[in-house]
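Thread: quick sanity check before group meeting

JM: Hey all, I'm pulling together slides for Thursday and realized we never actually wrote out the predicted structure for the chain we discussed last week. Dropping the sequence here so it's in one place. If anyone has concerns about the input, flag it before I start.
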Amino acid sequence: MLKHLLYYDWHLDIRAGGPPGYLANLRYGLDRIPNPKDFEIELWTSKKPAENKKKSNWKNFVNNHKFLRYLSVNYFSKSERCWYKNYVRFLNDIDNQFIEDEVIKKIKDENIRMVHCNYVIDAIKVINTIKRDNIKDVKVLLTSHMPEAPSSENFNLILEMGYSWKKAERFQKLWQHIEERAFRESDILIFPSKEAMDPYYETIPEFYEWTKDKDVRFFQTGAKALETSKTKEELKKQFGVPDGKNIVVYIGRHNEVKGYDVLVEAGKKILKDRDDSLFLIGGKANNLIEPPKNKNWRELGWVNPAELLKIADVFVLPNKRTYFDLILLEVMSTGTPVIASNTGGNKSVQQVTGSLIMFDGSVDDLDKKLLEFLDKSKTEKLALSNKILKAYEDNYTPEHFAQRYVDLIQKIYKDYGVV
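JM (edit): ok, ran it. Output follows.
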């Protein structure tokens, strides 16, 4: 029997974004559908999640002040300076990185003909190994999960962490080499949809040339439904939500790519004119974008999404660029209406389901769409809730996700004559 390998050199987390959440949801779905008769799908992961160490009060104080964090990571903190130095050393040596001997043996001994990577660095490691060991007839499939060019994503991440612009630029240049090799040298690229490729065309000038003659396939993602046993009454008490408030929720990174700045500006306009709305914001604040100073805007930090969404009236997904957010599918699983920017994977979900409220990405249009939603009757809001829940159940459960994946891989194997 043929064996198809999903290779990911990290750990899985079904509640995380990116590859950890994507692959955990896929594994969950594959465990719940019939196994393919002609090949076996194996998911190989390596590392266990690191333990979250509680930060000292001083460390939290430093991280909450932009200038102090800048001084710490660039000059005073030995561990953070070493982290950057070691990461740069690794990226510089990417052409000499290889997969584990255990995986090499598996590929050679178990009739593995295709290896699907979900991280650009993993793809390069597999490609390096295939070339070094002269392994024949193995195709490399790549799915990249970043909402823009990996080099741009990591450039912004380093800046968010407090490192200098010069260090971020050095990081970005190294990542540009990585993304070029990964996209050009992988045999097959897999995206959730054509629209999910838009951020790459927008942030990588050469992306069209790299992919115009490439085998590119598409299949949409899925996600396990968010659930909590707590009642709405318990959760409103937990979050301190008074009666009579419209609950507007956002969960995600606080940066411009995610559209957090657009949400902030629209929120300011709404909170200025009406007191019946409460914005509950999940995700780590970073002081790059200052939130409104208003009692009805609450920054909650890390939250359990299932708990927050159970009391939400509406969820805002304001991405300026987006790939195919798992959080969107998770929100849909709770029956929470969504106001989403008309970009990337959001457009794909809307084309399939027609269940989202779309806005054009501007502050004014988000303000308009939010006000229109807040003024709807309970009956109208319930209809939107039922519509989005049905869209999830009909399209985006883990079982739908896994079956689409099996169908895609079977089609690829057939197209390449692998039987």
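AS: nice. The chain has two domains: 2-223+399-415, 232-396. The CA atoms of residues 270 and 367 lie 7 Å apart.
JM: adding both to the slides.
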